[in-house]
Amino acid sequence: MSRNAESTAFRSALEVIRAVEPRVADAIGAELTDQRESLKLIASENYASPATLLAMGNWFSDKYAEGTVGRRFYAGCQNVDTVEALAAEHARELFGAAHAYVQPHSGIDANLVAFWAVLADRVESPALKKAQVRQVNDLTEADWFALRRELGNQRMLGMSLDAGGHLTHGFRPNISGKMFDQRSYGTDPATGLIDYDRVAEAAREFKPLILVGGYSAYPRKVNFRILREIADSVGATFMVDMAHFAGLVAGKVFTGDFDPVPHAHIVTTTTHKSLRGPRGGMVLCQPELADQVDRGCPMVLGGPLPHVMAAKAVALAEARRPDFADYAQRIVDNAQALAEGLLRRGAKLVTGGTDNHLVLIDVSGYGLTGRQAEQALLDSGIVTNRNSVPQDPNGAWYTSGIRIGTPALTTRGLGTAEMDQTAELIHTVLTQTTAGANADGTASKAKYNLDPDLADKIARQATDLLAPHPLYPAIDLA
Ligand code: DSN
């Protein structure tokens, strides 16, 4: 496709939108400008390709398609079947998975599908068998009451939120923490690393139904072979949430013990982080869980989004190209260069570095909370997000950490030399920012002081750093 075609496609789309609600067209244009001008270091974001973006803006959005390929609750789903089957085929081939379910709308939805597939397989099915009935509607009231109690009283062991786990791995304010009797494994306070012996000990004591591996803020590789052995030793189903690092698995940077797909019974992911697809989720699983996973809608999901499944098929086809492996390796090279640049300048990093796409700065070393650091960086054109660090004294709102990641800047084409310059900009902002005070003179966890002229200067330097790597160079909306 010619570069001109991309420009024409997006300009025409905005013209059509502008004729109905110009403020929406303006906001879309403004978002492109903002993304072009800022250093996007949010570890969970990326830039999807024009083909992926365009696959979402069409009449597939108008179609209901509850059920799965070839078994729908609505007529007229033949074209939805085509794109859903294609997305699933690309996912299976890309990850070497036995089964792929591409309907989840997000990572949280994918995790809910996985939890309920395991509960259905390990709790509901045996109860139906014991009662000698085919489905839950055939149970007596007494058996149904007993089954509901049993479904709501199962155990999950996952990584704690402040050690880098995700809130859906049993955090009490999330439904996962309410559905399951949950315990967490943390990291070694001295090294910040997962201590597999401690995980095994916790599994032996707690005997979870589900052992969850995976993270959203842990900067190291995880040995999924060892976690599977731990799960097997206590009869747990092993689930991995690879939302953050799916691109590194797809690009074969994480292989062998570090590739979750051959080791886990069930793997969940988002499609929009390092995988660089549309916003959405996906579940991969072993054959024995496939039927239960395919019941995700209407079990816990609303109607599938066929336009997003079409975009997933496009993005997964892109990830199967040879150049995606090079992209995935450059993500890690860049994260390591960023970590080294920060360490050399005196920053304190959780675990002292990174093996993956993300770096977690402990900003207490700069005398700041995560919230103060996040805002000061934003004033300076650097977009990050605050994050807890292990044993964080500031909780999940103010935090003591800043999480930064390289998937987006790597997509733009920035390399290791520019990561060192990025480290310099971040370190300068954080050393020049001081914690502020409340009106009554007490220390504030939110207020901070940063010279606005310095913030402007850093923002200009960030723009200069990005200038040789224009975002969507073929798209000119002017
Ligand atoms: N919001 C995602 C992240 O930033 O890691 C996870 O839900």
Automatic annotation (TrEMBL):
Catalyses which reaction(s): (6R)-5,10-methylene-5,6,7,8-tetrahydrofolate + glycine + H2O = (6S)-5,6,7,8-tetrahydrofolate + L-serine
GO biological process: glycine biosynthetic process from serine; methylation; tetrahydrofolate interconversion
Keyword terms of this UniProt record: Amino-acid biosynthesis, Cytoplasm, Methyltransferase, One-carbon metabolism, Pyridoxal phosphate, Transferase
Highest taxon above the source species: Bacteria
Domain Serine hydroxymethyltransferase-like per the UniProt entry, residue ranges: 19-120, 153-426
Cofactor(s) needed for function: pyridoxal 5'-phosphate
Keyword hit for Cytoplasm: yes
Gene Ontology cellular component annotations, sorted alphabetically: cytosol
Annotated (6S)-5,6,7,8-tetrahydrofolate binding sites: 161, 165-167
GO molecular function: glycine hydroxymethyltransferase activity; methyltransferase activity; pyridoxal phosphate binding
EC number(s) recorded for this UniProt protein: 2.1.2.1
N6-(pyridoxal phosphate)lysine modified-residue sites: 273
Top-level class of the enzyme under EC nomenclature: transferase
Site (Plays an important role in substrate specificity): 272
Pathway: One-carbon metabolism; tetrahydrofolate interconversion; Amino-acid biosynthesis; glycine biosynthesis; glycine from L-serine: step 1/1
Keyword Ligase: no
Subcellular location: Cytoplasm
Similarity section: Belongs to the SHMT family.
Free-text function comment from the UniProt entry: Catalyzes the reversible interconversion of serine and glycine with tetrahydrofolate (THF) serving as the one-carbon carrier. This reaction serves as the major source of one-carbon groups required for the biosynthesis of purines, thymidylate, methionine, and other important biomolecules. Also exhibits THF-independent aldolase activity toward beta-hydroxyamino acids, producing glycine and aldehydes, via a retro-aldol mechanism.
Subunit structure: Homodimer.
Name the record gives this protein: Serine hydroxymethyltransferase
Species this protein is from: Micromonospora parathelypteridis
